[in-house]
Amino acid sequence: MPDWLDENAQRELVTACRDWASGPGRLRSARLPNGGVMSVRTVCLGWHWYPYRYSRHLDDGDGSPVLPFPGWLADLGRRAAGDALGVTRYEPDIALVNFYDEDARMGMHQDKDEASDEPVVSFSLGDPCVFRFGNTEHRNRPWTDVDLRSGDLFVFGGPSRFAYHGVPKTLPREEPLEIGLPEGRLNITLRVSGF
Ligand SMILES: O=C(O)CCC(=O)C(=O)O
Ligand SMILES: [Fe+2]
Fold it and tell me: Where does the record place the Fe2OG dioxygenase domain (predicted)?
């Protein structure tokens, strides 16, 4: 859903992201089991994700408790899921906030560390990107490339909930944005843990 978040809502989300990301070690690149490090930097709310599980604590960091998942963000997620899918009940309790600098990417993957098949709600802020939405069988074609721009909402649920997806590249801004994010891209995904 293009432009689902107006400029004010985008600015408020950017401010919230800056607040969540501030503090030593909060925004970090997750380390993969193969020794690689993700190019995206992430801060989590509700449940802390690291490859490939969730914890209430930053087990791969300083062990501190994960930040709480705010009620207003659940309300926003519920409105988003309602507008996109027509559902009235949606109780997200996880947010993954990803920051992409101009070189960051995310490889094709499924969001499958949750114990729930409730939809994933995704908000994009800042630089546009190519979002690659694939199939549920494997990480290869067929897929659809969608440009996601600041303010866009993308929701995947039902038969698409476990589709492979990724971000092959971010793109330069087409126009200046007044949302308090001078460079880079933020993506916030809301999920239901089922835990
Ligand atoms: O940045 C995006 O648009 C997608 C992020 C994503 O797939 C994830 O956090 O699992
Ligand atoms: Fe994902």
Answer: 91-194
